Amino acid sequence: MSNSIELTQESYVDSIIERVIVKNPGEAEFHQAVREVLESIKPVVELYPEFEENGILERLTEPERQIIFRVPWVDDQGSVHVNRGYRIEFNSALGPYKGGLRFHPTVYPGIMKFLAFEQTFKNALTGRPIGGAKGGSDFDPKGKSDSEVMRFCQSFMTELYRHIGAQTDIPAGDIGVGKREIGYLFGQYKRITNRFEAGTLTGKGIDWGGSLVRIEATGYGLVYFVEEMLKDVGETFEGKKVIISGSGNVAIYTAQKVIELGGKVIAISDSDGVVYDPEGIDLNSVIEIKEKRRGRIVEYLKAYPSAEYNDNSKDIWKIECDIAFPCATQNEIDTEEAKALVNNGVVVVAEGANMPCTPEAIECFQKNNVMFAPAKAANAGGVATSALEMTQNSMWESWSFEDVDKKLRDIMKDIYSSIKTTAEEYKKDGDLVFGANVTAFLKVARAMMDQGVV
Ligand SMILES: NC(=O)c1ccc[n+]([C@@H]2O[C@H](COP(=O)([O-])OP(=O)(O)OC[C@H]3O[C@@H](n4cnc5c(N)ncnc54)[C@H](O)[C@@H]3O)[C@@H](O)[C@H]2O)c1
């Protein structure tokens, strides 16, 4: 009897994975994200037949709304360009849709859907009342002037504005969308709607509704999360050799907090290559190159000629280290890179980027007893602080840096302890991937059950 129930439930999960592949052809990243979550929650879905009876997985894998639109803009030479804009409003069971905007040439529906799907679970883990969404465009801000970026953002918002709002959908930044872009987007939103509705976008400037710590939050939160993992084995960051891929928002503030806690960041990268400095990377130089000049990481060598540069970004994972933070993009660590890290004795791998490790890479870490922190838990500090920004906006208040930082630290501690406890409850001690997926799934699924078939 119990066998037949197991078989039915297993085939439910498998049939949903199959359905997602058939209904979303060619969207490999979305298939990957769905498979990763559904396969890990299988034992829990088997325990509660009401999830199948209520079509929870069918609904959980189908976005509530998908918006695709044309974004025409004019460059500095007067030529017309057309990009494609997206907003995927995936799930609003826990609150208004919330998730970043990504401007990058690789953006297509498969990337948008995987990010929005993941965001639903991540947002659930923060304990804040926010649903999941993601958006963006295949526009490439690299090499564009400020005026071109402004015109693009204005055109993008001219369509997006009708779909968003403080109670509806609240976009934020992601790859290629930082404070500058949020400023242009907010300006256009305000102009079209004639409303200074600060709670409609997060990641705003401090003087016009932004929150202190939002810029640092994803990186700081990631390090606070790993600090908890290390504490559990009687360790700290003190003296640890750390490598961090990327050199954008997440990478920079991860590095800053690691250094503050006594770790040594020995390598950092961008999509062109890797800088290795065994003496420890000088973060101020990186900030000068990346945040001020919007330059390439190779320029680090001008200030530090003794550092080494390698023009293959993936080679960062061959560097010996104690802790690795992939903070650049999806699927940057596959089996080969994971094996190189394991062979070099890595102790912790924590995902700052979204889905930077393939399922095979994660399996390799878990088999080799590497402590592994999955993105939806470890990088949730950014969106959690965005939710704190929304709270301040609705109260017409601004909290101090210390206040927000403490709240962020507490949220990261809570996420760690809740997913660790869930893993233990199901006899999967230390499996934070399982713990994160199940904790988030149960929260979203139960809210969906409460709200009926919508
Ligand atoms: N910004 C946030 O608050 C936030 C929150 C959660 C997750 N994330 C995720 O973190 C990752 C980075 O986002 P970000 O906001 O720092 O973006 P960003 O645009 O500020 O930085 C991205 C960095 O990655 C580098 N990069 C891109 N492709 C690369 C590659 N193949 N190899 C090495 N470097 C590469 C870029 O050169 C850049 O330095 C993304 O996966 C994003 O979804 C961001």
Automatic annotation (TrEMBL):
Q: Which residues form the Glutamate/phenylalanine/leucine/valine/L-tryptophan dehydrogenase C-terminal domain?
A: 211-452
Q: What is this protein called?
A: Glutamate dehydrogenase
List, alphabetically, the GO terms of the cellular component aspect: cytosol
Provide the family line: Belongs to the Glu/Leu/Phe/Val dehydrogenases family.
What are the GO MF terms of this UniProt record?
glutamate dehydrogenase (NADP+) activity; nucleotide binding
What are the top taxonomic ranks of the organism?
Answer: Bacteria, Thermotogati, Thermotogota, Thermotogae, Petrotogales
Per UniProt, where does substrate bind? 98, 119, 122, 173, 386
Known partners and oligomeric status: Homohexamer.
Alphabetized, the UniProt keywords read: NAD, Nucleotide-binding, Oxidoreductase
Instruction: Kindly give the InterPro entries that the UniProt entry links to this protein.
Output: Aminoacid_DH-like_N_sf (IPR046346), Glu/Leu/Phe/Val/Trp_DH (IPR006095), Glu/Leu/Phe/Val/Trp_DH_C (IPR006096), Glu/Leu/Phe/Val/Trp_DH_dimer (IPR006097), Glu_DH (IPR014362), Glu_Leu_Phe_Val_DH (IPR050724), NAD(P)-bd_dom_sf (IPR036291), NAD_bind_Glu_DH (IPR033922)
Concerning SUPFAM superfamilies, the annotation shows: Aminoacid dehydrogenase-like, N-terminal domain (SSF53223), NAD(P)-binding Rossmann-fold domains (SSF51735)
